[in-house]
Amino acid sequence: MPMKLQFLGAAQNVTGSRHLLHVNGAKLLVDCGLYQERQFQERNWKPFTVDPKSIDAVCLTHAHLDHCGLLPKLVKDGFRGKIYCTAATAEIARIILLDSAKIQEEDARYKAKRHKKEGRKGRYPEQPLYTAADAEACFPHFAPVRYKKPVQVASGVEAAFYDAGHVLGSSIIKIKATEDGTQRTVLFSGDIGRPRRPIVHDPELIAEADYILVESTYGDRVHQGSQDTRKAIAEVVNATKEAGGKIIVPSFALERAQELLYYINELLLAKAIAPLKVFLDSPMAARITKVFQKHRELYDEEMIDHVENNESPFKFAGLKMVGTSDESKALNHMKGTIMIIAGSGMCTGGRVKHHLANNISDPRNTIMFVGYQAVGTLGRRILNGEKEVRILGQKRRIKARVAKISGFSAHADRDELLKWLRGVERTPRKVFVVHGESESATRFGDYLRQETGWQVAVPAYRDEIVLD
Ligand SMILES: [Zn+2]
Prior knowledge:
By secondary structure, the chain is an alpha/beta fold. Helices cover 31% and strands 22% of the residues. It has 14 helices and 22 strands. α4 (87-118) runs antiparallel to α5 (132-138), α4 runs antiparallel to α8 and α6 crosses α7 (256-269). 48% of the residues are buried. Bound molecules: zinc ion (ZN).
């Protein structure tokens, strides 16, 4: 039987990554992500299209929810195999999955209460997709692997993980299988990072691949000749200090928060900004930062230099990890210029909403965005220059300065993706463009065909393709 690939998520959309490879009579799932786009969320609730009991192993590229967020449900529904990933991915996934379970439990309680009050039923069950206990139950399945050391994941099937340079521990996965005397290599890009990012390595080039699944989040654009990110942050810090205000930074807990600390540390070392009190007010980001501190083997050269010279970005004078919510509330009464980094990254929940409520109407303050703000989120409305927003049930005038720092993207753009693909030495038999909105994936597919003459497909949800 030839190998077969099923596209069960992130096919002409971005989230819900899930690819099932049938090989040598085994079923291998690469990623088991949560759908986060509103129009696809109902797929999270449906039974898996393939019985989880029949899946032999999972290979996980990285710890973002759109790649790992449905693992607890997979285990709850009967999966009994191993989940192969790097140790850092396993450690970060634990933190992220527990947080996700907590949010789902809270949402379910809130929904049940609201629906009861309004005497109606919602679109989805008033239950969490999975609980913290379900998340805990999936952790024993994690089997840590090292980069570049192939592991046997099924009979005659080997998986090797390579640094994808996207977030700490992120991987490109190469699966090599021999069936009826024929050897085939299938390469899963996962999410590909950008060259010259702080802390992590550049994405590794892979020479060997018969079939490639490549992400295309930014496959239809080229990142602008980036504004000097350090300089832009320094300008915000210095101007806000001059005004005597506070800086509120909504941030994702994984990678973005640590990269921001990295830049601030460098600005302090270069004396481009005056000593500054920085509060990382996100217990999840603080826990993830601990994983960063533990895995020095994943640092790039500059980061190693900083740590060896006692200049760790996670320990500079003035940096404080905020624990309890009382400590968080106490930040309201602090005088002088401070920076508060808090989640959630798009201001849809979390402690940042309280800080925004308390600070957004004071013209001395700055709200500094360091990440993408999706349409419909509070972050996007603030960034769009609205005069007034509703936060925690109250209308607030926006009088604070709003700044956007670019250059933080964790995804390769069109040209960087092509450069990564050109790392393969022989023409691949076929390339599948996944993990991009329909338009982005299609345009990247066209571009790739035109530039390389390769066979390129943009599979749709539930497509099945034989890899001969
Ligand atoms: Zn990712």
